[in-house]
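In keeping with the milestone schedule agreed at the kick-off meeting, the structural modelling team has produced records for the first pair of proteins. Each record is given below as a sequence line and a structure-token line. The laboratory manager (R.T.) confirmed that both were archived under the project's standard naming scheme.
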Amino acid sequence: RRRIEPIGNMNSTAPTILDAQAPYPLHKLGWKAFQDLCAAVAEECLKRPVQTFLPTADAGRDGAFVGTWSKAGPDAGSSTIQCKFTSKESSTLSLSQLADELAKAKALAAKGLAADYVIMTNHTVTGAAEILIKEAFEAEGVGSCRVFHGPWISERIKQYPRLRMLVPRLYGLGDLSDLLDARAYAQAQLILSEMGDNIQKLVVTEAHRRSVRAISDHNLVLLLGSPASGKSTIGASLAIGAADAWKCSTIKSTSPEHLQMHISPNEPQFFWIDDAWGSTQYQSDRTERWNQVFPLMQGAMKNGTRFLITSRDYIWHAAKRNLKLQALPVLTKSQVIIDVHELSVEEKARIIYNHLKLGDQPRDVITSLKGFLPGIATRPDFLPESARRLGNVFFTGKLVITSGGVTDFFARPKSFLQDTIETLDEASKAAIALVFLNGGKVRSPVSDDMLAPAATAFGVSNASLRQHLEALNGSILLLPQDEEGPYWTYKHPTVSDAFASYVAKSPELVELYLRGAAPASIVGEVVCSGVQITGAPVIVPQVLNGLLMERISSLPSYRLRSFLEQRANIEFSKILIASRPDLLTGISSYSSPIKDDPDTSFITNMFIKGLLSEESRLKFVSALRNSIVDDADASFIQDGDIEAVLSDDELEEFLELARFEFTERLDFHVSRVQDEWNQESDPEDQFDTFKAAHRVVMKRLLPDSEYKSHSNKIYTRIRDAVWSMEQSYEPPKTSDTVSPIVPQKSNSLDELFRDVDE
């Protein structure tokens, strides 16, 4: 066999990746990644493992770390490490920029936490400025002050390979496409250069750390995960790390034959084998060929060659039945499974931060998104792929930047799953269709009669369908058990949504969709003919109204009301209301403010469609009257659709009633709102809704001169009530003491996102 030699000279005089990147562009890291780098430098270079984090008033821009060391000599005692980051290139740090830190340093010294005070910054610091800084801090009582600036940190990055592996984003800051020809094969040049942007956005997660440990301990790691869970990005960072830290030639291997041709018995190498047993579907013809090279891989590992193998989890489960694992036993014990549901809130937040900070979204768009980002990071349905798309203008052309729009972007990543489904083989699609056609749940073992419709629809055999059910278990499908035994279902409910969208692309398959989809999925996806909703994949023609009625009519009333209001045309609405009169008659109460009650929106929509009976209208009018009297609810004035339901006489009556409640019964309502107060909430917030209602009513009914006078009166009364409430209110406790390093929670996420749009 002929082995292809690497491109370029591999001798020691060749420039390395990091030699070519001086000065190092630390300003591109972002403040949080720079803090991570400082912590790594403290541990790896200064031998000062960080122990605690000091929260600051800098809203996350800078950070301070504390550690205690028992080493004898000048390094003994407690130290503070202060990080100062700038996103400006070639910026110089002066004493005046550290003025706010002097008082803090004095307080830390008084507590015995600053026997050693270290300032790390990516600014440049002149010799004269360093002297002034050291003298100023030592005058405040710190034992000794040292300053390590950007050039010093850059040198440490070049000297310490382990430091670079701890912060792999460092690899992504330069233009890798110009730096690899002296270090890697032609395939590595292509792969690593195209992955450079992803490495720059990489957040070190627990899965990444476990991958580094696994390949260090076993010389092989099998990286398993669902599509778009981050396998390729981790693979790229490990590949560069191998070339850097272990001086391995890096090869992206595409097949067993490719690996067999390139493997060397004499020199350490790094093989990155992506999607080893198929990219989107299991390719059984590859299995035996991999079995033939396993002994060769086992021998190479003894000489220091390392292997990174990635696979989608469902493909691995299908492949391992046919692999001769005894020939490469490490495959069974050196596995890292990436589960996005195990990402910490901070990891999610930093993934979002990096993709927005380093993506191509315009600054004004990022600013508009900024307030929603902490909430996204706490979502259990977060996907790294969704964060990547959020940072890319290509995927966000139709994104409505509201709370609901951003939530939907992450909660329903249908296009991503649909793309995955569309690339599956026909037997896998039939396996999903089997579950789909049985309402999302089918008992196992599945009879041939139940298999037949899905198998026929996709032109595969029953036997092939059964095999692919097993292959999809744990990825797209799931085989759990209940008291009756095992059953097949979706791994995640969004699989049903994505498959529905796939089916709906063919008008001939709409009937298949209506018969097979779960009713709850149908009412969230379809629209009746003539109704337009952006992104609704399935349009139900008039001829199928009867089938639609049959499938959804037994759903809970709240689901059907939402469907009638948003997705049904008048013809279908008439049919459904005739079958389910309780949709109108079953509404017995409304919450305040009444305009925000979903039943109110349904009632007004039915009125506009001409489907609201006079009896139901009068019940709504009565409820509206009660909300004004009982809760001083004036929201009916803010909603034109509600006013449209009222007769002229009713509207005049309600306006006068609202005026009376806010003038003659002011004390009653202020006391009522005060009595409803939960003592754990801020008293000031308790009256927000009441004050807003007052403004609406008085603006509508009073001239400006009277409005101002009356507003002063009501706000004086509210201020007295708030003062009274504050006497028994205990605000959340705060502390200036140090706190242990823990993953950031949602209440600190605003700090993390502070400069995402700068």
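The second protein of the pair:
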Amino acid sequence: MKAIDGQAPQALTTALFLTFVFITDTNGSLTSRDVERLNQLLADTSWVDDALLRAALAGLGTHYTALWKAYDAGNISRDPQNLAAALAQALNGLDANSAANVSAALRLFAQRIADSGSLALARLGVSAAARAKQTALLDFEHLLADIPGALAPPIEASETTATDANATAFSAAAGDLWPAAQLEFAQENTWKRGRTRVRCVQVTPETHNAKSFTFVTDPPRVLTYKPGQFITLEVPIDGKIVHRSYTISSSPSRPYSLTITVKRATNSTVSKWLHENAAPGFEMEIAGPNGNFSCLDAPAEKLLLIGAGSGITPLMSMLRWLSDTASPVDVILIYNVRTPNDIIFERELHLISSKMGDKLRLAIVPAQAPAGHAWNGPTGHFTENLLRYFAADFLQREVFVCGPAGYMGTVKGLLDHAGFPAQRFHQESFGAGPAAPAMVTPSAVSPPSSTSLPSAPPVAAAPRKAEAEGAAPASFGDGTVYEVVFSKSGKSIICKADDFILEIAEAHGLVLANSCRAGACGTCRLTKIEGTVLMDDQTALTDEDIQSGMVVICIGRAHGRVVLDA
């Protein structure tokens, strides 16, 4: 046999390369992780005892680039016949003992190449080999076993080399029927942030005016986000792209799809369009995830989730995650709705409650029950009496609140009056402006029993928090004006000091992406080239974003001459 560098047979080196691409490049599925795994095997050959194969691995490391160029040009084929011929040539001329040792080492090499998936799964004891690699590995085993002199495969096959024909056929078919079946938890298969294209696969009616829309990415990817975060949809309406942000109601513990739950509102073009047009097969772009309203950012042993109407969606994402991960946490959910007919996720809430048992206390409270409705639970609005009745230990809990602005103002006012620590209060405000001050009273609530609830004097909700440190007042009376320059469009606009940049841009004909208009979603973020932009109550940008010059223009105001990259 001709040798490479006088050490390793050329045929054996070529057989190693063909084995690598045969297993990893099924249907063009070769990834950077596969190449990284091969380099690791070449750099550290302590896993193989056969000196001949070790020399061939060194030869592969030296000549890999040339072999890859030949393969990429089509001069080397990965088809089974070509691989079988290379394996036969590599073993030809070896004595029985050497042939057995080399074939055993080849089999070990193939198994290690197939196990090139997620290290996280490997640590959990889960096979890291994707379905396609498992099938290719089985084919390799059969090709090697048919070569005279090769060592027969072990009788007790490992999980990776199982030879059940039905299982093999099922695995091959599953990739076509369920693309997610072949997804590995690898970096290149994961969506973490940014724009991606999604396809609707399911629409689920939740109530008379709320629907859940479930999406998968195209091509398929594993979806990662924090429970409670939101995405921005790019919805094609009347020939234009309209941006709108919606909370993710699904849980990242189920990473193959993503769900939003949308309540149809009479004054919302997008929610109306989705309810009437979005069906399985509909495709669009999304961006995200964004938002800091997540239990993962404020871990605690005792949680109090408070929501109203469609404000249940981020809380549901958290509940699903807590349930799926069997989290050892004590949770109370208070959910206010208009009527029993407006309870979103009603059946699933009770299912999660039954699964979590004593770890979840569920309080669904309609404002009223229509005449003739079979509702035997409590009714009423959110009051101090209701809070103390269902969550007597609320002062000991981490609180997450989501709902209409007035509702959140009421909740915060009651908690402030009770001396609740501000740092343990978390409010989802995206999609609406800050909650206005409101007078709240402990109006009567009808509990599920005749228990007498203590009364309390009316209290005023806390006013809107002070503006960000270093920010100018919300209004100006000195007539100060500044210049805002949009560098790419060539527009220079003179504005007052209290004008929001997005609004002045729109008034001068600039079309810029935006969604929440409350400084929370980040859709309108731009890079500031020069100047100072004041932003009050923004939650979309991280400290790193701000340091790099990012600003959100929906709540951003110029403080001096400002140049933006737009």
